[in-house]
């Protein structure tokens, strides 16, 4: 029997309510349906405003879906209330969402958000330490990634708040890539990188894919998208009828 997808999104609708504009409704997605399997990198495509980032945020549990299912399947996981390690993020309670984030999915957002006064090496090692990896081993893995991403060693003990935009993004990528979770969500991971670092990130994505990690990402850079994505899900296909007609 074929393995179930790591992520199955089925019939998801999303409408935003603009509270600052008298509760005006902004329908964005209707009937969003796609799957991502282990070892597959799926890109979300579509024009600006189509809803790509909102999809990542719904999968990560930051935005609620109005309808439909967002099922994460993690082999061997005993998700509370789940069946065979499956958890529906669209219906999960906050505790289940936090657990899914710890055990199943990572998220590389566009910008680094980290605690002030914590050095870059520790920022990158933290997700491993939180999951029980001994500190020395976590710092070693963090150091290897920072080296690959060309963050000079003299910066490792400094807090990334003062780093350049590209340096912060590379620390952010290292933090997102340091764990080996079954699903990784990538929101424009190469947006402010130079060509050399863009190639390193492309390599890191391809290595994860080869190790069986499922990835769902937004890649505006067509060169990166072509190099890493197995297929593209066109989000406009799922534009709400009201929005499509506008
Ligand atoms: N929290 C929010 N509240 C209200 N409207 C929102 C919210 N988040 C997104 N939207 C709206 O939903 C639509 C989709 O936004 P989203 O950021 O998902 O698009 P996108 O396809 O990722 O765009 P881009 O490629 O420009 O980043 C936009 O019209 C946006 O203004």
UniProtKB/TrEMBL annotation:
<dbReference type="InterPro" id="IPR012701">
    <property type="entry name" value="CP_lyase_PhnL"/>
</dbReference>
<dbReference type="InterPro" id="IPR015854">
    <property type="entry name" value="ABC_transpr_LolD-like"/>
</dbReference>
<dbReference type="InterPro" id="IPR027417">
    <property type="entry name" value="P-loop_NTPase"/>
</dbReference>
<dbReference type="GO" id="GO:0005524">
    <property type="term" value="F:ATP binding"/>
</dbReference>
<protein>
    <submittedName>
        <fullName>Phosphonate C-P lyase system protein PhnL</fullName>
    </submittedName>
</protein>
<feature type="domain" description="ABC transporter">
    <location>
        <begin position="7"/>
        <end position="245"/>
    </location>
</feature>
<dbReference type="Pfam" id="PF00005">
    <property type="entry name" value="ABC_tran"/>
</dbReference>
<dbReference type="GO" id="GO:0016887">
    <property type="term" value="F:ATP hydrolysis activity"/>
</dbReference>
<dbReference type="GO" id="GO:0022857">
    <property type="term" value="F:transmembrane transporter activity"/>
</dbReference>
<dbReference type="GO" id="GO:0005886">
    <property type="term" value="C:plasma membrane"/>
</dbReference>
<keyword id="KW-0067">ATP-binding</keyword>
<keyword id="KW-0456">Lyase</keyword>
<dbReference type="InterPro" id="IPR003593">
    <property type="entry name" value="AAA+_ATPase"/>
</dbReference>
<dbReference type="InterPro" id="IPR017871">
    <property type="entry name" value="ABC_transporter-like_CS"/>
</dbReference>
<dbReference type="InterPro" id="IPR003439">
    <property type="entry name" value="ABC_transporter-like_ATP-bd"/>
</dbReference>
<keyword id="KW-0547">Nucleotide-binding</keyword>
<dbReference type="GO" id="GO:0016829">
    <property type="term" value="F:lyase activity"/>
</dbReference>
